[in-house]
Specification:
Number of helices of chain B: 1
Structural class of chain A: mainly alpha
Strand content of chain B: under 5%
Radius of gyration of chain A: 23 Å
Helix content of chain A: over 70%
Oligomer: heterodimer
Largest sheet of chain A: none
Number of helices of chain A: 17
Structural class of chain B: mainly alpha
Largest interface: A-B, 32 and 25 residues
Number of strands of chain B: 0
Helix content of chain B: over 70%
Chain lengths: 488, 41
């Protein structure tokens, strides 16, 4: 029996379930670096240029002083690295979801650590050799696989430890994914400065250091993590005997889930909510400056983006925790209705010149964007039960990949179309805002149609017992060592 | 007595685990908040 087996991670007596959120955060804070990858984009467009540059010695204070060579990578080429990573996040979470669920969190988190660090190392070689496809392979494909496996594994484990507060539990982990950029961004800038010379940008060295640091961090998480013994429940918690209207007590098998309309309705809810948020998140800086020319400077716009990141992270915890009290369906109703109102208000804030109104609208919108991510695992758990929630969550994350394409395309192309057709820049985003509001109306209808899953999709007891063999072996092992289940 | 020792050991482990993730996260949040303050300058 290997150290990574699920049965070796069954919690012993006296284990506090509050050890599991830090384990989850060890992984999510690391893979959340993906949101900060853009800090490398500009330096990577000057890798060759700097070696031939006549820029001042303190060129790193302003990279625009460095002229790139024609052979240097273009920003458009580098943009594909992040897109590939998000695409492979969706693909790998869908493909490996069942493996993650059945193999246990330690194996999955260790694999994610290997892939995440490996992705950085391959990318470092790519930068060193100036070979772009190695970055696509390293960060985009291998790193993307780490994102998918690392994202779903701790989430499903937390849901099992916190049956009484699943929203709060998933909110904590997914908040970490949003917060990972806060650490990665200043850390990456600091490391690049350390490794920079007058003729060299320290991107490759920074990738190596980040790979090592993240590997250690994620391994600590995989060592700490535990799964509850079968039948364990928190002290004082009585699980509902009968299913309520929207919370099941049964389980749905992973590959049966996407035969249900509920899966696809939630897929669209997530996709539309993310599309509405991701488009403006990527364009927030440019949008704020163009809507309020002369009033929001580039420095202030950078501050606005930072503030949005804080609300993105805070919203993940706030909304998911709130959903434990008001219900998942109602939480998404709030996202859709409030989001619709705010998107309709944004163009008016531009026309009356209210910077405060614009900022407040977008901060709330972006908190709901984050909240959409963190509430969805608990929504899935309510619909499909806890057994395969991680794998089903993995399948659902393809909605994120799709939204990653729809959102920025909608914002960028509609703006471009408007500007080329003579619309003033300050009003170029108005149509986009109304389209986003329209998307949320569709999301509202999808949410309205969500009902409890038909009982014919529930796993039968025989099926349960076959699939639970491994879990029982783990329980027997735990009982032999402990004599009693783990405590809360 | 043994149970008490075990409990305090668990408490220390819990504290260390949260510090391990909490300190870098708080540092990152503070850095971002300093950056975000530029919006109001």
């Amino acid at each position: 029996m290997s150290f990574f087996d699920r049965s070796r991670t069954v919690a012993g007596p006296g284990f506090s379930r509050w050890m599991v959120p830090p384990a989850a955060l060890c992984v999510h804070l690391c893979i959340g670096q993906a949101y900060a990858f853009s800090v490398f984009n500009l330096p990577m467009t000057k890798l060759l240029g700097i070696s031939h540059s006549t820029a001042p010695a303190n060129w790193h204070a302003n990279l625009n002083w460095v002229t790139p060579l024609p052979e240097d990578w273009k920003l458009t080429e580098l943009g594909w690295i992040f897109s590939l990573a998000i695409f492979f996040l969706g693909v790998s979470s869908a493909v490996f979801g069942r493996w993650v669920e059945e193999g246990g969190p330690r194996r999955a988190m260790f694999t994610a650590a290997l892939c995440w660090a490996g992705g950085f190392f391959v990318s470092a070689i790519g930068v060193y050799l100036h070979t772009l496809w190695l970055l696509y392979l390293g960060y985009g494909v291998i790193g993307g696989i780490a994102l998918g496996i690392g994202y779903i594994s701790p989430v499903s484990t937390l849901i099992k430890w916190f049956p009484d507060r699943p929203g709060m539990a998933t909110g904590m982990a997914i908040m970490g994914f949003g917060g990972g950029a806060f650490i990665a961004s200043p850390l990456s800038v600091w490391l690049m400065r350390k490794f920079t010379t007058t003729t060299h940008v320290g991107v490759a060295e920074t990738f190596i250091v980040l790979g090592v640091v993240y590997f250690i961090w994620m391994i600590v998480g995989s060592i700490i993590v535990r799964v509850p013994a079968p039948g364990w429940k928190p002290a004082g918690y009585t699980p509902p005997v009968e299913a309520t209207k929207l919370i099941t007590t049964s389980d749905v098998y992973v590959y049966d889930s996407f035969k249900t309309p509920q899966f696809w309705l939630i897929w669209w809810i997530l996709c539309l909510n993310v599309t509405a948020g991701i488009g403006v998140l990527g364009q927030a800086s440019a949008m704020s400056q163009e809507m309020f020319p002369g009033r929001i400077t580039p420095v202030a716009a950078a501050g606005f983006v930072g503030l949005m990141s804080l609300f993105n992270m805070g919203g993940r915890f706030f909304w998911a925790s709130t959903s434990d009290y008001i219900g998942r369906k109602n939480t998404y109703f709030v996202f859709m209705v409030l989001g619709f109102i705010l998107y309709c208000i944004v163009p008016h804030t531009g026309s009356i010149g209210s910077v405060e109104g614009f900022v407040v609208c977008f901060l709330i919108i972006i908190s709901m964007y984050g909240g959409g991510f963190s509430t969805v695992p608990a929504y899935l758990r309510d619909m499909f039960g806890t057994r395969y929630v991680g794998a089903i969550h993995g399948l659902l994350l393809t909605a994120w990949s799709a939204a990653g394409i729809f959102g920025p395309v909608l914002v960028n192309y509609i703006r471009e179309y408007n500007v080329t057709h003579g619309v003033p820049k300050a009003q170029a985003y108005n149509v986009t805002m109304y389209i986003m509001a329209g998307l949320l109306v569709i999301g509202f209808i999808c949410n309205l149609l969500v009902r409890a899953v038909n009982a014919r999709y529930h796993m039968k007891s025989e099926e349960d017992s076959t699939l639970a063999t491994a879990a029982r072996a783990g329980a027997a092992m735990a009982a032999r060592f402990t004599g009693k289940p783990a405590g809360a | 007595m043994a149970t008490q020792n075990q409990e305090s050991f668990s408490g220390i482990k819990l504290l260390l685990a949260w510090a391990f993730v909490g300190i870098p996260l708080i540092w990152g949040v503070v850095q971002t908040a300093i950056n975000a303050a530029k919006l109001f300058q």
